[in-house]
From TrEMBL:
Any one GO molecular function term: DNA-binding transcription factor activity
Protein name per the record: HTH crp-type domain-containing protein
Top-level taxon: Bacteria
Cited InterPro entries: cNMP-bd_dom (IPR000595), cNMP-bd_dom_sf (IPR018490), Env_Response_Regulators (IPR050397), HTH_CRP (IPR012318), RmlC-like_jellyroll (IPR014710), WH-like_DNA-bd_sf (IPR036388), WH_DNA-bd_sf (IPR036390)
Keywords: DNA-binding, Transcription, Transcription regulation
Length: 217
């Protein structure tokens, strides 16, 4: 666990006592694929670091529609779990683990102590918030100004990178949640993509046949 702490950008700026404090109190947590954590403005566990696996951060409407905001991959840090560090930040989002995963948690009390002692820790938190805010704004821009065809094509290309394969284990529901749209919209577009020779569908699987054409949509 200590090796992963050393990858934090502010680690070298900490005193020996601060490093010891973090190392002593860090918690390892394991999750299974499909597990969901909820993060809201009133909930604060601390700073979470993805050691193994991946997760998607998403929002859900009162009607139950979902949209993926961004993903956490190995060695990414989740700032949403440290909302207590930013008192004016209000939101309700969820984290769904897309694979079995292991995260390291710096408890909020320990994080607050070190942050008060070392401004570099608070700077890191604010920089991370700015970076995630940029990701969310890009997602909102696509939702408002990009066509569903383009967004679906980009989602499929992203899944190719994540799964490192052209035959993707994906359902229409999963893609609908990814894009924040209706399942019927996704099904209609996938049928069109199949007619155009871009992909082939089978139960629970989508095989990409023409990545270059898909990327131009």
């Amino acid at each position: 666990m200590h090796n992963y702490l050393e990858t934090l950008p502010f680690w070298k700026e900490l005193t020996d006592d601060q490093k010891q404090l973090l190392s002593t109190h860090i918690i390892e947590r394991s999750f299974q694929k499909g597990d969901i954590l909820n993060h809201g403005s009133q909930e604060c566990t601390g700073l979470e670091m993805m050691v193994k696996g991946q997760a998607r951060i998403f929002m859900m409407s009162p009607q139950g529609n979902e949209i993926t905001l961004y993903r956490l991959l190995e060695q990414d840090v989740c700032v949403l779990s440290a909302a207590c560090m930013i008192h004016s930040l209000t939101f309700t989002v969820s984290m769904e683990f897309e694979t079995d995963a292991v995260i390291l948690l710096i408890p909020k009390q320990i994080l607050q102590i070190v942050s008060l002692q070392n401004c570099r820790v608070k700077d890191f938190t604010m920089e991370l918030v700015a970076d995630r805010f940029s990701s969310v704004m890009n997602t909102m821009h696509d939702v408002m100004f990009s066509s569903n065809e383009h967004r679906l094509a980009q989602a499929l290309l992203t899944q190719m990178q994540l799964q490192e394969a052209t035959s993707l284990q994906l359902t229409h529901d999963t893609l609908a949640h990814e894009l924040g749209t209706a399942r019927e919209v996704v099904s209609r577009l996938l049928k069109q993509f199949q007619r155009d020779g871009l992909l082939q569908q089978s139960r629970g699987c989508i095989t990409i046949l023409d990545e270059q054409r898909l990327s131009r949509l």
